[in-house]
Amino acid sequence: GYQQDVVARAGSQGGKLCFRNDPDDPATPATMLACANSVDELAEHHVMAMVEPFISRRDDFGRIRNDLTTEAVVRSATVAAGLASTSAYTWLKLPVVAELDRVMDATTLPTLLLGGDPHGHPDDTYASWGDAPGIPAVRGLVVGRALLYPQGGGVTAAVAIAGNLVHAGRR
């Protein structure tokens, strides 16, 4: 990762950080403080901080698992919004979950939505995005693998579908 002053000097529009909040991990407070400092330092340079927050826990094998329940995503969004002394330059990057409207009601921050890992038929993935782009705080989709590696290899069609969803939501 880049230091915040390097991001600013390079003329980048923002810096992105992933904030995994594991209530059972004693390292979480230090992680929270480091994230808060990053958000503050980016804001001092008038540069956006893209925060991708998750409530996470370790499974029986020690692997980190993100909790993608609506309640956990609401909590992660509200904690991320209050990380630093200002949220003036903070954007969120959140997963699409059931009851996304409840998640978005919990924050006033501009948000980009993760497309998630594509499972099953591509139409099911696109349908999971639903009306999300029409929610006022949602500014777009960050969908990665769902567009780069769609089932059947139809990248052009996948990008067109995502573009149509975003533009339809902005009307």
Considering the chains and any ligands shown, give keywords for the structure.
7 helices; 171 residues; alpha/beta; 22% strand; 6 strands; 6-stranded mixed sheet
Structure description:
The mean pLDDT is 86. The longest helix is centred in the first third of the chain and has 17 residues. The chain is globular, with a radius of gyration of 17 Å. 30% of the residues are buried. The protein starts with a helix and ends with a helix. The chain has 171 residues and is an alpha/beta fold. Strands 1, 2, 3, 4, 5 and 6 form a 6-stranded mixed β-sheet that branches.
How far apart are the termini? 37 Å
β-strand amount: 15-25%
Number of strands: 6
Count, helices: 7
SS-derived structural category: alpha/beta
Largest sheet: 6 strands, mixed
State Rg.
Answer: 17 Å
User: How are helices and strands ordered from N to C?
Assistant: HEHEEHEHEHEHH
Average pLDDT rating: 86
Contiguous runs where pLDDT drops below 50 for at least 5 residues? none
Assign a percent range to the helix content. 25-40%
Gross morphology: globular
